[in-house]
Design goal:
The complex is a heterodimer of chains A (368) and B (546). With 368 residues, chain A is of the alpha+beta class. Chain A contains 4 helices and 19 strands. Chain A folds into 3 domains: 109 residues, Helix Hairpins, CATH 1.10.287; 133 residues, Immunoglobulin-like, CATH 2.60.40.420; 90 residues, Immunoglobulin-like (Sandwich), CATH 2.60.40. A 5-stranded mixed β-sheet of chain A has the order 3-2-1-5-8. Chain A is elongated and about 100 Å long. Chain B is an all-alpha fold and 546 residues long. Chain B is built from 19 helices and no strands. In chain B, helix 8 runs parallel beside helix 10 and helix 10 packs antiparallel against helix 12. Chain B is globular and about 70 Å long. Classes of the chains: A alpha+beta (368), B mainly alpha (546).
Chain lengths: 368, 546
């Protein structure tokens, strides 16, 4: 230890410097080893997402640089300037320095102005919407399900996808889009605020009731055949996390086939009422009009189901047994429409009928 | 004692200790009660956070099979932490410190001060009581309509109304407290205590009070409109009857963004007191720091819509630019703090250790906030766990570490006893490691696409490990409270006697006894700079290096 209190021993600075270098090396190693990649967004799949990713990389580089500089200064000061028993006299009482204050005002201002300008540039690209997109989809988010209406050039509905999630087994469901084509999505909500969020698009947009939001994207050509996860990102109630959907990227030819099939299904004549007993069930104000129904055991039956809630609110009537196993799974229908559901024979027992979208909508179904 | 028995007349005026505390108008007792009340709600809010983290530890719904209860948990966690912990805790630290620091005998309006205090436990209990009246608010602490409106899937029941009433009450307490601070600071400074000799803590409370007085009435208006919508058939925020859902967000964030600075500026004030004392140097750039504080306060009113970048209803470039710019005064402060340490003589007492925790963690909270200032990047990050990481690096890494720095710093003044250093360091390391283990992984979760406010997630989404890590970290944070509570308990009984000025402080509170007498000072030292006690100790020698 040095005998002069005001002058610090050189080893202090050396140790502090070595520790700082080691810390910087550690951070660098984390990034070079790939572990740091978890701090980067998932691979972008749209041209807009690639722009956002490029912007993210620049912001991230500045962030890491600033983080390292300031944390290194702190760590170095902490290690270098700890008080020693020989420190009796006061250190030099520096009250400030106008030059450095100006420097650390001007330099950060320049940095944030630069980041602002490149952000604004990117924003103008990713936020642009055209008058003549290749495909128009009207996404409706109601509590707690999405539906996707496919529109023609003049905005008329040609088909509706009521199954928002892709089922890998049946190949049904999801919002299909052609790769390499501009897709314009308009967003509407019949109830509360939701948000359309696809992580691999690096993008989300709120679905605000009373306000039609609009955005556009183009999926990269080489993503054909991929299925992307999407999810509501704005708290919308008890079923918020169930508002899942998928975006399916198809080659333009496959997309045409897919859309034709959807149009055919949308235009198909509704199923006739099944033979056998038919019950009438109505859903309104997020509730069934009955909480207990009876059907004959071991015989097929039907339910003439009417969804009297506003358009955008989906319901169905599914059945599960006492153990919780779903024994009948019907397609959801939109508010303001009705459907004839056919059910297979049920063994005599107590069941629960329920709406697959709204956990509060249940009743007992007795087969006897 | 003999005198006691011989003067029965005096007996009539002598009340019990409890009565004394419940009826006191002494800013010091009120300040301590602010701190205790806030700390209790901190524990309650922490338990709610643990419930949330426990549910999220693994995919699948394990405990909260009714997801409505999950929504209640995170809604009440945030509400309690923001409105009944961080804001009043800092107001409490200020309540104790400000009159002492400016050489005043008390706050300007001692009775209003007591009123501000007693509204807080009432508001907190109203919030808690909603659990026993059919369920608490569950629409998030932001309570955006239409979700917070009436309706079977929205917010039926009294919980949301109790939430509104409690927040109006707590807001009124804030406004009264803010006015009280402003009048105290402007009218009751001791002779010689000019504005530019005030401690930074007082400056941050001053700017905070301006924010509170200007912004809190605005959120009160939003709450009242929401209450009318819910109970009296109003349609302010009902888009289906000519109202606007986004209107609420504008009004709400016009308060709630400045509220972030209400929750951070006084913690910055604490750190700006602690760093100079424990590095034996003046704060680097005292005036620059004050201008930066005022700059943050002013800019704080023009960035509210950066919470609304994805609504499609705000002018994005304006709010992006202003949000970026707010990084500049914040950066000035950061460099001033670091250069205060530079060439100092650091003593690693617990207050300094927590202040360094503030510096290193708040830095991350500032940097990861800049990502959201970049609108396109915010399109990816908004409403994901990234935002949860960001806000906790600001409000926990910043405010909470600052709060504990303040508690360890002033505890000797409050009680006359020192807190135990070993337990203090143990608490710090548990909290520091637990904090980073909890909140750093949330960056990864957010950027990989995990939205906030979901009770469950797919097991194949790749989020399992980070969620488990965050949950373990959460319990580590909780465990850090045990050494703290034990520390307070044993230190009050057997702690080292502090004396007037255990830290060689700079500011006037160290010029009186610990704890100070009623009305604080018998006499004041001469005030010639922002460090009157330093001047008294060292004379003009301290200014040699000016």
């Amino acid at each position: 230890m040095s005998s002069t209190p005001r002058k610090r021993p050189a080893p202090d600075a050396l140790v502090a410097g070595i520790v700082v270098v080691i810390l910087i090396a550690l951070v660098a190693a984390v990034f070079l080893s790939g572990a740091g990649s978890t701090l980067y967004p998932p691979d972008a799949v749209t041209s807009e997402a690639r722009e956002i990713r490029g912007l993210y990389d620049i912001v991230f580089a500045f962030a890491v640089a600033i983080f390292l500089v300031v944390e290194a200064l702190i760590v170095w000061s902490v290690l270098r300037y700890r008080r020693r028993p020989t420190d009796v006299e006061l250190p030099v009482q520096t009250h400030g320095n106008n030059l450095v204050e100006v420097i650390w005002t001007v330099v950060p201002t320049a940095i944030v102005l630069f980041l602002f300008v490149i952000s604004w540039n990117t924003l103008n690209n990713v936020d642009a919407v055209s008058n003549e997109p290749d495909v128009r989809v009207h996404a409706i988010a109601g509590q707690f399900a999405w539906q996707f209406e496919y529109l023609d050039e003049s905005g008329n509905k040609v088909a509706t996808q009521l199954a928002p999630a892709y089922d890998a087994e049946t190949g049904v469901g999801g919002m299909a889009v052609p790769v390499g084509r501009s897709i314009q999505v308009t967003l509407d909500s019949p109830d509360v605020i939701h948000a359309f969020y696809v992580p691999r698009f690096l993008f989300k947009r709120d679905v605000v009731p009373g306000q039609t939001n609009r955005f556009e994207f183009t999926v990269d050509e080489d993503e054909a055949g991929q299925v992307f996860r999407g999810q509501c990102a704005e708290l919308c109630g008890t079923g918020h996390r169930q508002m899942l959907f998928n975006v399916i990227a198809l080659s333009p030819a496959d997309y045409e086939t897919w859309l034709a099939a959807l149009v055919e299904r949308s235009n198909a004549t509704p199923a006739p009422l099944p033979s056998g007993p038919v019950l009438n069930v109505t859903a309104k104000n997020i509730a069934f009009d009955t909480t207990a129904v009876e059907v004959p055991a071991d015989a097929p039956f039907g339910i003439a189901f009417s969804n009297d809630d506003p358009p955008g609110i989906l319901h169905d009537v599914d059945i599960r047994d006492a153990g919780g196993t779903v024994v009948a799974n019907q397609d959801t229908i939109d508010g303001g429409t009705s459907a004839n559901y056919s059910y297979g024979p049920l063994a005599a027992a107590q069941y629960t009928f329920f709406c697959s979208i709204h956990a509060n909508m249940t009743g007992t179904l007795t087969a006897k | 004692m003999a005198t006691h028995a011989l003067s029965p007349a005096a007996q009539a005026y002598s009340r019990g200790t409890l009565y004394d505390w419940l009826t006191t108008t002494d800013h010091k007792k009120i300040g301590i009660m602010y701190v205790i009340n806030s700390f209790i709600f901190f524990l309650v809010g922490g338990v709610l956070a643990l419930v949330v983290r426990t549910e999220l530890a693994q995919p699948g719904l394990q405990y909260l099979t009714n997801e409505h209860v999950y929504n209640e948990m995170f809604t009440m966690h945030a509400t309690l932490m923001i409105f009944v912990f961080v804001i009043p805790m800092l107001a409490g630290l200020g309540n104790y410190a400000v009159p002492l620091m400016i050489g005043a005998p008390d706050m300007a309006f001692p009775r209003i001060n007591a009123l501000s205090l007693w509204m807080l436990p009432l508001g907190g209990l109203l919030l808690i009581s909603s659990f026993f009246t059919g369920g608490s608010a569950a629409a998030g602490w932001t309570s955006y309509p239409p979700l917070s409106a009436e309706g079977p899937l929205n917010s039926p029941g009294a919980g949301q109304d109790l939430w509104i009433v409690a927040l109006v009450l707590i807001g009124t307490s804030s406004i009264l407290g803010g006015i009280n601070f402003l009048v105290t600071i402007f009218k009751m400074r001791a002779p010689g205590m000019t504005l530019f000799r005030m401690p930074i803590m007082v400056w941050t409370i001053l700017v905070t009070s301006v924010l509170v007085v200007m912004a809190t009435p605005v959120i009160t208006s939003a709450l009242v409109m929401l209450f009318i919508d819910r109970n009296y058939g109003g349609h302010f925020f009902d888009p289906f009857q000519g109202g606007s859902a986004v209107l609420y967000q504008n009004i709400f964030w016009f308060y709630s963004h400045p509220a972030v600075y209400v929750m951070v500026l006084p913690a910055m004030g604490v750190v700006s007191e602690v760093l100079p004392v424990f590095s034996r140097k003046p704060l680097f750039g005292y005036k620059a720091f004050i201008f930066a504080t005022a700059g943050i306060g002013a800019l704080g009113f023009s960035v509210w819509a950066h919470h609304m970048f994805t609504t499609g209803a705000v002018f994005l470039p304006f709010f992006s630019l202003l949000t970026f710019l707010i990084a500049v005064p914040t950066g000035v402060k950061m460099f001033n703090w670091v250069f205060t340490l530079f060439r100092g003589q650091l003593t690693f007492s617990t207050p300094l250790v927590f202040a360094l925790g503030f510096l290193t963690m708040f830095l991350i909270g500032g940097i990861n906030g800049a990502f959201s200032a970049s609108v396109p990047v915010d399109f990816a990050l908004h409403d994901t766990y990234w935002v949860v990481a960001h806000l906790h690096y600001v409000l926990f890494g910043g405010s909470v570490f600052g709060i504990f720095a303040g508690i360890y710093y002033w505890f000797p003044k409050w009680t006359g006893r020192m807190l135990n250093e070993g337990l203090g360091h143990l608490q710090f390391w548990l909290m520091f490691i637990g904090f980073n283990l909890t909140f750093f992984p949330m960056h990864m979760l957010g950027i990989q696409g995990m939205p906030r406010r979901i009770a469950d997630y797919a097991s194949d989404a790749g989020w399992n490990d980070w969620n488990l890590a965050a949950t373990i970290g959460g319990f580590l944070i909780a465990s850090s409270m045990l050494p703290f509570i034990w520390n307070v308990f044993i230190s009050l009984r057997n702690g080292k006697v502090a004396g007037d000025d255990p830290w060689e402080g700079n500011t006037l509170e160290w010029a009186t006894t610990s704890p100070p007498p009623p009305y604080n000072f018998d006499h004041l030292p001469e005030i010639r700079s922002e460090r009157p006690l330093f001047d008294a100790r060292h004379g003009h020698a301290g200014h040699a290096g000016h």
